[in-house]
């Protein structure tokens, strides 16, 4: 047994009743007195010079309260990484993609705002545009930004060990490629916000965001306000997956127009605008060359990657690093060389999406490892087990696997799926495939250079002593972090979960970098634990003095005070407590143990409000080379998956029959949420493998900017899943916990690719594996092999 | 996206509805489930100034079955078609199409009349309806006419309906003895999909385990309207059913498909053609099984 009372259980989510009954408030549910509605004017052209903007007709429309362009907003550049700030709220010299932001209107209602937007006249001079990497890198190609020669917005070149020398030692060298398609995070709730600049000069932005903290900083920087005058509040959020992990133009425009009008301004993206805002997974072109010994020992990987980045950098500089660094594990490999290029094009910007940067790289490599296994006559599971890292191993690029249940994950899925009875033994058309992957538990550094804590937490006991109030600026976006932190607080304080109330997602509660890079459970979790321990210490200090019992001889468990040695006479304290509660019917009886409620009331009477604080920032992490900050993390979660599927050889359609998934999350704080994250990422990975693709026409317009034609899996597409939680007790995690949200998606795409090969003998190097692509591959295969 | 402004009519009788249509003609649109019309209006693809709901007219939701066949009001919902025991018993392929359409939320609102009138060449119900030889009743103030669905569609979004007419009934005859039909739609995912290719096939045998007496094959998504695979049908008539025969019929059907494919559409012309072949033989197989009483 773990010895824990709260964590590790299958606790119901604390937000579940409100969400299930429709009471949970999302931006769209919120209104404020006198609220205006805003709308954006966005470019219909992919690349054009702005010769003039005429807003006069829009301004004259009755009901219009504010019309703003770059002239009102200024030209302060912002973005995600300070090294690549290349956006302004509104375009001024030119538009760089269809949907680029030109102007905004606030009016008494949405109809009026939209009508006003249609009255703004923009004089565009169409410019030649680049949409593909080939076009963008061609000699003399038009530049998306003058600051990026050849349209290279970021590039990475690094080598660990000596790859060419290692290849000379290899018995088999294999080169393959993989290309995916641009993705959309396809969360259910489109971005939305309400900005309110009040009479005291405080700007409050309510927004559907993953990162209240970064949004607060961007708003303050771009609008020229002190950070302390900007408050960002996140209500419930209907998913983010990466695309909501930075401030957006709409938030900034709403803030600007609220400052101009003194009224609250509400704005929402339409689904189409969600697609045009983009910031989801890039299109990656990976080429990898792996060298192995005859016995399967992996010696070296040479890797080249080109990414179609779209018009702005967004997270791109991190993406191009991650695409290389996340292949350092989970296999022992002494030599790795990586050349990555992120290319600017006249398409909406790409950014971060679940499994940031690593997903397609993992897909390419794990398919290649299966091909190597076949050529060596090895079972794919055996090849992986032969090379697997274990806890304490450090990758050639300095990622420290402080805990790593990778081997346990592989063995778990192998056994649960009956791999040995199935691999290579299923009838034609049916296949089984496996793959592995891992991901960071938070980045070692904030996105901007700073010594800031990554998370601070305040816990205050209510003065009656009955409830612990947890205040964290972290972002519950549907993943269950509120419940996880409430559980951590309860466990560390020694009280039942019901005695904890948690408020989150408000920059007034402290600093928290937010929900990205799978960081919150580990980082906010640490801060929560520390705050709870601080509170506990304060309560026990008072108790120690009152009862004359040494601190170390007491503890709090399950809401009761535990006396490890002789139980003192606490009847005096109890009498004081009961006297204050005449008429109450739930006062403790004479025989009852001393409760936390009594003890914390006594602590309040002695000291005033009991407030504990906690904080976390990662320790100094390995890697001194340029870009080492992208990939180093206090801990790494990992997963292995086995997929069984059927290929309809007539139509090319793939039906996933079963997915078996094991993930090492260090320790499951809330088992329900861990399993939910695993199932969710199986669904997302499956959609990306089989269906999803943002399509453009020849002028850079999106052809499927809706959830009818951009196809994420439906409930009917989800196969039976078996999710196995592996716990490795991460030394750097709170209670041993680390990530589950992103590492788990890594294995899905390659497991499907490998299962397709097992089913029909065809290797496919382009995603998604939609029926047409599979059908074409089968047709070519049959023609080639004269079947 | 917001709906544009329009006048809303909700007549209680068919006569009243016909009068409104007579008055406004092309400026008016009939509203049934709204799953196509309201979406198109939001997208500004359709801009009627008058919207005439026929959902309050009782007989528009009717289902009448008799030994001779079936009469459905246009507002009979797709969910009801999918769940109707009377329909699944004799017109199984129509149920298959209804089950394949959209998702439960859409099916609860979408109507059989709307699915026909929208005249989308990828719609789920028309191929089976045409294969079963269905007819529609078109009514206006001055009278009504009955049109075979086979001659009803004129192009994508274009039909025989005049601006002052309302589709008031769908009629399907009872399939003769030793008949069967099959419908398969092929897309990307299992629900709320848009078809890449869909095919309905119908055959009648001249006796139990007999020769094919009559065949109708209807292909969706491969032309501006649903297309009959006439040469494939001819090839089948007089032959003894077999998988080889069905494969040949599939190949013949492929030659009659005229898909337009481009990078922008849901699939290439080549893939659509190949799928016509696969789905034709598979739906013929389903039809044969049903004709044999399986």
How many domains in all of chain B?
Answer: 3
- Principal-axis shape of chain A equals globular
The major pleated sheet of chain B works out as: 5 strands, antiparallel
Corresponding CATH architecture of the largest domain in chain B: 2-Layer Sandwich
Which fold does the CATH topology of the largest domain in chain B refer to? Answer: Uridine Diphospho-n-acetylenolpyruvylglucosamine Reductase, domain 3
Fill in the CATH topology of the largest domain in chain A: Aldehyde Oxidoreductase, domain 4
- The topology string of helices and strands of chain B comes to EHEHEEEHHHHHHEEEEEEEEEHHH
Helix content of chain B: 25-40%
Q: Which percent band covers the strand fraction of chain A?
A: 15-25%
Number of helices of chain A: 21
Radius of gyration of chain B: 19 Å
Distance separating the two termini of chain A: 58 Å
Structural domain tally of chain A: 3
- What's the number of extended β-strand segments of chain B? 14
Q: Class by helix and strand content of chain B?
A: alpha+beta
Q: Number of DSSP helices of chain B?
A: 11
Low-confidence stretches of chain B: none
> What is the CATH class designation of the largest domain in chain A?
Alpha Beta
User: Order of strands across the widest beta sheet of chain A?
Assistant: 3-5-1-12-9-10-11
Give the termini separation of chain B.
48 Å
List keywords for this structure.
heterodimer, A: 787 residues, alpha+beta, Aldehyde Oxidoreductase, domain 4, Aldehyde Oxidoreductase, domain 3, 7-stranded mixed β-sheet, 5-stranded mixed β-sheet, globular, B: 294 residues, Uridine Diphospho-n-acetylenolpyruvylglucosamine Reductase, domain 2, Uridine Diphospho-n-acetylenolpyruvylglucosamine Reductase, domain 3, Enolase-like, domain 1, 11 helices
């Amino acid at each position: 047994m773990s010895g824990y009372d709260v964590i590790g259980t299958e606790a119901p989510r604390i937000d579940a009743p409100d969400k299930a009954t429709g009471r949970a408030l999302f931006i769209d549910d919120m209104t404020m007195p006198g609220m205006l509605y805003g709308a954006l004017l966005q470019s219909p052209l992919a690349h054009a010079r702005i010769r003039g903007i005429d807003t006069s007709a829009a301004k004259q429309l009755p009901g219009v309260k504010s019309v703003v362009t770059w002239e009102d907003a200024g030209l302060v550049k912002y973005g995600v990484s300070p090294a690549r700030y290349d956006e302004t709220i509104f375009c001024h010299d030119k538009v760089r993609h269809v949907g680029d932001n030109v102007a905004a209107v606030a009016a008494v209602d949405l109809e009026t705002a939209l009508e006003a937007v249609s009255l703004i006249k923009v004089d565009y001079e169409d410019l030649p545009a680049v949409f593909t990497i080939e076009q963008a890198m061609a000699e003399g190609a038009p530049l998306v930004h003058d600051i990026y020669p050849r349209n290279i917005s970021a590039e990475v070149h690094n080598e660990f060990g000596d790859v060419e020398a290692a290849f000379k030692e290899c018995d088999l060298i294999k080169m393959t490629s993989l290309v995916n398609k641009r993705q959309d995070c396809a969360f259910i709730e489109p971005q939305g916000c309400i900005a309110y600049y009040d009479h005291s000069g405080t700007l409050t932005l309510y927004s559907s965001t993953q990162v209240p903290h970064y949004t607060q900083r961007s708003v303050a920087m771009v609008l020229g306000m002190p950070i302390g005058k900007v408050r960002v509040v996140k209500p419930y959020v209907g998913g983010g997956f990466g695309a909501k992990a930075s401030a957006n133009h709409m938030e900034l425009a709403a803030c600007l127009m609220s400052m101009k009008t003194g009224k609250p301004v509400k704005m929402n993206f339409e689904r189409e605008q969600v697609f045009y805002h983009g910031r989801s997974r890039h299109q990656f072109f990976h080429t990898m060359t792996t060298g192995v010994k005859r016995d399967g020992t992996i010696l070296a990987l040479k890797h080249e990657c080109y990414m179609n980045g779209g018009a702005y950098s967004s997270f791109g500089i991190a993406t191009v690093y991650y695409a290389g660094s996340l292949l350092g594990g989970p296999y022992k490999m002494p030599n790795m060389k990586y050349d990555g290029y992120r290319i600017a094009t006249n398409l909406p910007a790409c950014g971060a999406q679940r499994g940031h940067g690593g997903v397609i790289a993992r897909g390419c490599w794990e398919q290649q490892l299966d091909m190597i296994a076949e050529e060596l006559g090895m079972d794919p599971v055996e090849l992986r087990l032969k090379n697997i890292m274990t806890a304490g191993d450090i990758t050639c690029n300095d990622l420290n696997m402080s805990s790593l249940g990778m081997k346990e994950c592989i063995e778990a899925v192998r056994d649960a799926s009956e791999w040995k009875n199935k691999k290579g033994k299923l009838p034609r058309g049916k296949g089984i495939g496996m793959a592995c992957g891992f991901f960071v538990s938070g980045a070692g550094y904030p996105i901007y250079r700073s010594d800031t804590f990554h998370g601070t937490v305040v816990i205050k006991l209510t003065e009656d002593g009955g409830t612990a109030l947890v205040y964290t600026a972290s972002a519950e976006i549907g993943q269950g972090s509120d419940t996880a932190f409430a559980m951590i607080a309860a466990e560390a304080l020694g009280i039942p979960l019901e005695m904890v109330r948690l408020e989150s997602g408000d920059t007034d509660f402290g600093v928290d970098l937010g929900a990205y890079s799978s960081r919150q459970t580990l980082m906010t979790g640490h801060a929560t634990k520390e705050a709870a321990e601080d509170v506990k210490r304060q309560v026990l200090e008072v108790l120690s003095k009152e009862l004359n019992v040494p601190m170390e001889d007491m503890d709090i468990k399950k809401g009761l005070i535990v006396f490890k040695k002789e139980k003192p006479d606490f009847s005096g304290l109890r009498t004081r407590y009961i006297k204050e509660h005449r008429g109450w019917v739930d006062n403790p009886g004479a025989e009852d143990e001393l409760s936390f409620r009594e003890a914390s009331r006594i602590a309040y009477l002695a000291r005033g409000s009991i407030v504990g604080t906690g904080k976390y920032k990662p320790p100094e992490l390995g890697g001194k080379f340029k870009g080492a900050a992208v990939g180093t993390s206090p801990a790494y979660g990992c997963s292995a998956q086995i997929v069984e599927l059927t290929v309809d050889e007539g139509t090319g359609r793939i039906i996933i029959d079963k997915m078996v998934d094991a993930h090492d999350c260090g320790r499951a704080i809330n088992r329900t949420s861990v399993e939910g994250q695993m199932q969710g990422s199986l669904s997302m990975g499956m959609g990306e493998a089989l269906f999803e693709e943002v399509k453009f026409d020849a002028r850079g317009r999106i052809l499927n900017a809706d959830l009818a034609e951009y196809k994420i899996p439906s409930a009917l597409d989800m196969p039976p899943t078996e999710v196995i939680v592996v716990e490795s007790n991460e030394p750097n995690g709170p209670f041993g916990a680390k990530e589950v949200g992103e590492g788990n998606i890594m294995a899905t795409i390659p497991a499907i690719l490998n299962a397709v090969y097992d089913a029909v003998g065809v290797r496919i190097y382009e995603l998604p594996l939609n029926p047409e692509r599979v059908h074409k591959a089968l047709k070519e295969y049959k023609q080639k092999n004269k079947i | 996206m917001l709906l544009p402004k329009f006048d809303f009519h909700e007549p209680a009788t068919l006569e009243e509805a016909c009068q409104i249509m007579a008055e406004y003609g092309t400026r008016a649109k009939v509203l049934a489930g709204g799953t196509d019309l309201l979406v198109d209006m939001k997208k500004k693809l359709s801009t009627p100034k008058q919207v005439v709901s026929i959902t309050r007219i009782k007989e528009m939701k009717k289902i009448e079955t008799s030994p001779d066949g079936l009469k459905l009001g246009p507002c009979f919902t797709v969910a009801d078609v999918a769940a109707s025991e009377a329909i699944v018993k004799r017109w199984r392929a129509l149920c298959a199409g209804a089950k394949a359409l959209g998702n439960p939320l859409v099916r609860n609102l979408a109507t059989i009349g709307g699915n026909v009138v929208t005249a989308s060449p990828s719609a789920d119900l028309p191929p089976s309806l045409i294969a079963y030889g269905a007819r529609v009743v078109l009514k206006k103030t001055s009278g009504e006419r009955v049109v075979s669905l086979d001659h009803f569609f004129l192009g994508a979004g274009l039909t025989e309906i005049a601006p002052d007419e309302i589709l008031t009934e769908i009629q399907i005859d009872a399939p003769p003895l030793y008949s069967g039909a099959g419908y398969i739609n092929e897309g990307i995912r299992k629900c709320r999909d848009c078809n890449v290719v869909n095919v309905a096939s119908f055959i009648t045998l001249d006796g139990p385990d007999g020769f094919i007496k009559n065949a109708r094959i209807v292909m969706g998504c491969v032309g501006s309207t649903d297309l009959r695979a006439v040469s494939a049908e001819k090839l089948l008539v007089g032959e003894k059913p077999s998988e080889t025969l069905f494969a040949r019929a599939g190949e013949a059907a492929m030659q009659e498909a005229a898909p337009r494919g481009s990078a922008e559409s849901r699939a290439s012309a080549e893939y659509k053609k190949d799928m016509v072949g696969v789905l034709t033989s598979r739906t013929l197989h389903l039809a044969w099984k049903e004709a044999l009483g399986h």
